[in-house]
Prior knowledge:
Number of helices: 13
CATH class of the largest domain: Alpha Beta
Helix content: 25-40%
CATH superfamily of the largest domain: FAD/NAD(P)-binding domain
Strand content: 25-35%
Structural class: alpha/beta
Shape: globular
Largest sheet: 7 strands, mixed
Radius of gyration: 24 Å
Number of domains: 3
Amino acid sequence: xxxxxxxxxxxxxxxxxxxxxxxxxxxxxxxxxxxxxxxxxxxxxxxxxxxxxxxxxxxxxxxxxxxxxxxxxxxxxxxxxxxxxxxxxxxxxxxxxxxxxxxxxxxxxxxxxxxxxxxxxxxxxxxxxxxxxxxxxxxxxxxxxxxxxxxxxxxxxxxxxxxxxxxxxxxxxxxxxxxxxxxxxxxxxxxxxxxxxxxxxxxxxxxxxxxxxxxxxxxxxxxxxxxxxxxxxxxxxxxxxxxxxxxxxxxxxxxxxxxxxxxxxxxxxxxxxxxxxxxxxxxxxxxxxxxxxxxxxxxxxxxxxxxxxxxxxxxxxxxxxxxxxxxxxxxxxxxxxxxxxxxxxxxxxxxxxxxxxxxxxxxxxxxxxxxxxxxxxxxxxxxxxxxxxxxxxxxxxxxxxxxxxxxxxxxxxxxxxxxxxxxxxxxxxxxxxxxxxxxxxxxxxxxxxxxxxxxxxxxxxxxxxxxxxxxxxxx
Length: 475
């Protein structure tokens, strides 16, 4: 007999598991289906983010940053080190342990919140009077029925035509996290976030890294001034960045990968690398969902069609995260998951796309919220800009990391903050203040009048807000 639930979530990534927990908190009998598994076959909820994305990449970034600090910067502090070397196997083992801790944490949260977990792949069977019949295919077969279904099936990496991922030489984010030894030469096709982050990991550990980007500008989604500052920093570190290129034939052989490409001048080139990371975007994942069985509508990209409140074309079926429109960000999926659970309960769930922060965890970090200067110009919005460099910040000097700046964009008439952009130390943490300010529709003057601790990196945020009115105090 089919097991009955009020809410069933298909997918246990950031959007899915959070949606399930919030639904359970609201009193619904809730289940979550997720098929991800560890090497031992045990459940590994958390989706791409926890298993082969955000979490493991941050673990490796931390390890590689520690290595570079020890090798290049500890001497400035009077700390002498000899015989420095990297144990890649141990570094990867630590990364795996961090991932497992997060997997186990999610399973604990399910138990704590009384969410029933099914390990396997969920797919539609049919719609009926009692809701939707869903089949769970996995270690054990189950049939469950749900009054409401939340689809949170995420996304998959986009492959280069004619260059399928083998996760040995041609790598997606998954393979890039499992390289068993430091490659001598590493290539990146596309300057996507994960590619840049993983490229920076292996560059710090000794790899010669080349980035092939089709667009004529670096990090086109980032504020242009910030992107140029980041490109300058990355180039100084040794990252070779080629813009406006056209990638041709990719040959995968036993000794590595050969990439034929044409530079911005139209000149034919060849890049020979040990490993090639492809970071050209991601595609919505609806494989195995059996959307046709119930008439679920997909768009031309394969994404699930939803309205502004994440309702699909089917009654009581919702979709969130990477599998729908909007930015493919873990925290965006989480916010949608909470909002949908609350909407099912008759509440007014809230997601403000205009204040979703973006972060690239390179070194220097890049973070922003709101609109870029080029977007404001294109829209004809009159604005004021203010910047403050970290080289004038006392805490940044003490840290020994003065690269970058904070940039504010505010409405020329009302002074309302329209965007904040940061490249520099701990940008991922500093951006939160800007998100809060924008959610409350604060002005640059509001933030400039708030007392910030001294010495702190956050003082650069205050000073950039002051710079909007051309009255910085420390620069």
